[in-house]
Amino acid sequence: LPGLALPLSVLLLSMPDGHLASRRWWPIPTAVVVGTVLGSVAVSTSPTFDLGTSTPIENPLARAGGSTIVIVGIVGVVLVVVGLAASLGAFIVRYRRSEGDERQQLRWVGVSLGLAVPLFVVGALLWGVVPGAALLTGLSFLLLPAGIAVAVLRYRLYEIDLVLNR
Fold this sequence. Notes:
mainly alpha, two-stranded antiparallel ribbon, 6 helices
């Protein structure tokens, strides 16, 4: 969860100049961070970890919290989902207000994200059911960096020429 939700939220909120559009967007990354922490706590205190093997792995850090841990996990997931949806909304607002090269940079990232999310969902749903479905999930993780690479190299995002010359 931290490896997926946090970077995606930060990317959507800070594209293309590395800053939030305004101060009013600060609650979004805060919600994602708090949700990620709560979700991680809930997952790390479960009695077993089921990793798809024949026997689940016993958790030595398990807590007998019952419904409290479940509520913490649900609140965490809701915060992450709402934060990611708001991050996408912020990205769309920034795209609609942009012009020229900035719009092209955002377009490449948006198109790659628009292709990566459905591929990830289809790959996750078909994982273990259809042979080779795991490739879709792997491909989805490559699409977003490819879109960012095009935005950086083609449209001079982050003044890449200066970095490369040094």
